[in-house]
Design brief:
The chain is an alpha/beta fold. The protein folds into two domains: about 280 residues, P-loop containing nucleotide triphosphate hydrolases (Rossmann fold, 3-Layer(aba) Sandwich); about 220 residues, Rossmann fold (3-Layer(aba) Sandwich), CATH 3.40.50.300. Helices cover about 45% and strands about 15% of the residues. The strands form two sheets. It has an eight-stranded mixed sheet with strand order 3-4-2-5-1-6-7-8, sandwiched between helices. β14, α22 and β15 form a beta-alpha-beta unit. The longest helix has 22 residues. It is globular. The two termini are about 40 Å apart. About 5% of the residues have low confidence.
Length: about 575
């Protein structure tokens, strides 16, 4: 593989969620360790599954991987890091300041910004030559999905104004004095990221037009902040010798090759590797060792017994039950790359086809609703929560309402505060709240961001809920917050979208557990792009279908109160007609 030739000390794997970053990062770490190098594999992804891939428990400490000599792993737990960060700020003032003030500081530090800042604190420590990492020849980072990675790497720029003026005042980022002492560490970390002799960035994509466009944007954004040493890996490419006369396999192959042929020019100029689609799930050491090897004979060692028929509910079954309510909020959630946008569009199209008023919206920066729909439909409206636009709108509103009463210095401080990363969180939350209020009269179908983003969004919702509840409970007035609406299954139906593969199912189960801790009960699971539901004939696809049947049985028997299976179509589900086929 080109990207593993003469590798520098730091290797970063990034790209849209669901493209296989974790598998390729793990396989690369295993290969480097096998070459005699001492390797530390690090995940900064809130939805990390590195431990699942290796079949061992990995936490927030450097943990040797027993089956792979010279390989250790570390998972940065954003929530645990955030709690440590909060304690560092709040503990010194407990018993010194009034309890009400302490509670206010804790509430201020309960949102998504604190989580990202805390994770970044730990992340940068690995790039500055700490005692934790000095024993390793290579540090391989399985980074978060694209949006998180960009935000993470841009935080030093977002904080620069605060650090330059830092006098110990408090802001939504916590006491500035606490950030000031990290100035040298952040500067050193950014220098390491931008130095091609120390850092190589590997963009991971699938052979899909939308994914390649997304990774091209990532390339540009990272290059703009100095990370120019980039390689491209296209993962899961169906090889020509695996088609074997199967119309489904042939359609997949044609679609993938067309996407590769039309990829953006900025990607075409990068060093590129292709990883062949494998017939097995990428869990366990044997699978990882085979991942980066040349594609095997697709008919070798394949089970030739007939594929058992799949009998499972369809998406139309779920839509029929949803439609019976007449209105409500339908939230599609799950790991990035599982097809939430497509499933959300299919649900919305089917509800509109039945004559219901439907508002289809997304809070996912990487979503492509207009491209997916490619047309209009009676009763259906479409919108997108644009984080950048919402943030600018929020800033303008605050400056217009509060700015006139301030002197020049006060206005300058307000403008500085509105440039903090927390402002986007607040602005997006307000837009989110405004849209879900419509669900009292119509169907609102929301294609949410990948898991990590969604949980951060819900964390903001929860913070707002706690603040309103504290203020309103004593007044005796009736109130309903967005969190209360999300927790009410009569008003909100959460659909978890996954694939019939080991890792996506485990991640969806983890998300379900997180939602339940927040008092939100998922209503159904949707297993998307199912090969087993598409009558495959090619040996490689049939082998993948056998693995899928095991995971479908696990979802039906263990995880889901109700579920539906959506087949992998020969034609990409773009346009109203093809979206309707998903729910037929």
């Amino acid at each position: 593989m080109t990207f593993l030739q003469q590798p520098p000390r730091f290797l970063f794997f990034t790209g849209k969620g669901g493209v296989g970053k974790t598998s390729i990062a793990c396989a690369s770490a295993v290969q480097l360790a096998g070459d005699g190098k001492r390797v530390l594999l690090v995940s900064t992804d809130p939805a990390s599954n590195v431990g699942q891939v290796f079949g061992v428990t990995i936490g927030n400490t450097v943990t040797p991987v027993p089956a792979v000599p010279r390989l250790s792993a570390l998972e940065i737990d954003p929530q645990a890091a955030a709690q440590v960060y909060r304690n560092r700020i709040v503990d010194p003032v407990r018993g010194v300041l009034p309890d009400s003030v302490v509670r206010g500081i804790e509430e201020q530090l309960s949102g998504a910004c604190t989580t990202e800042i805390a994770a970044f604190d730990e992340f940068t420590a690995l790039l500055v030559g700490s005692s934790m990492t000095e024993a390793f020849d290579h540090i391989v980072f399985d980074t978060a999905p694209t949006g998180h990675t960009i935000r993470l790497l841009q935080l030093p720029g977002a904080w620069s104004g605060f650090l330059e003026k830092g006098t110990g005042d408090a802001s939504c980022l916590g006491p500035l004095a606490g950030l000031e002492k990290q100035r040298v560490q952040y500067k050193t970390a950014v220098e390491a990221l931008a130095d091609p002799s120390r850092t190589r960035l590997v963009l991971v994509a699938r052979a899909q037009a939308s994914t390649l466009r997304e990774v091209a944007r990532t390339h540009g954004e990272l290059a703009a902040i100095g990370l120019s040493q980039q390689y491209l890996v296209v993962n899961g490419v169906l090889q020509a010798n695996a088609v074997c006369g199967d119309p489904l396999a042939d359609a997949i192959r044609i679609r993938e090759q067309a996407a590769l042929a039309s990829m953006p020019d900025v990607l075409r100029a990068l060093p590129r590797d292709e990883v062949a689609l494998k017939p097995f799930n990428l869990v366990g050491l044997d699978a990882l060792r085979q991942l980066l090897r040349d594609a095997p004979d697709p008919q070798a060692a394949v089970d030739t017994t007939p594929l058992p028929p799949l009998v499972a509910p369809t998406l139309s079954t779920l839509v029929e039950a949803i439609a019976a309510d007449g209105h409500g909020l339908v939230m599609l959630m799950g790991k990035g790359g599982v097809g939430k946008t497509t499933v959300a569009a299919a649900v919305a199209v089917e509800l509109a086809r039945r004559g219901h008023a439907v508002h289809l919206t997304t809070s996912d920066p990487a979503a492509h609703l207009d491209e997916t729909l490619r047309g209009t439909l009676p009763h259906l409206t479409v919108s997108r929560i644009d984080p950048h636009a919402e943030t600018e709108r929020y800033r303008a509103k605050v400056l217009a309402t509060k700015g006139p009463a301030l002197d020049a210095e006060g206005r300058a401080l307000l403008e500085e505060d509105l440039r903090s990363p927390c402002t986007e969180e607040i602005a997006v939350f307000q837009a989110f709240s405004a849209i879900i209020r419509q669900a009292g009269q119509v169907f609102v179908v929301m294609d949410t961001a990948p898991t990590g983003h969604t949980l951060l969004l819900l964390d903001a919702t929860g913070a707002y809920h706690r603040e309103v509840a504290r203020q309103m409970t004593s007044s005796g007035l009736h109130f309903t917050t967005p969190m209360m609406q999300l927790q009410d299954t009569r008003q909100t139906k959460v659909l978890l979208v996954t694939l019939a593969e080991t890792t996506p199912v485990l991640e969806a189960a983890g998300l379900q557990a997180d939602l339940r801790r927040a008092g939100i009960e998922p209503w159904a699971w949707v297993i998307n792009n199912c090969v087993a539901a598409s009558a495959p004939q090619a040996p490689l696809l049939r082998e993948r279908a056998r693995h899928e049947l095991v995971e479908i049985a696990r979802v039906a028997g263990t995880h889901a109160a109700r579920y539906a299976v959506v087949p992998l179509l020969r034609d990409e589900p773009i346009g109203v007609a093809r979206l309707q086929a998903l729910s037929s």
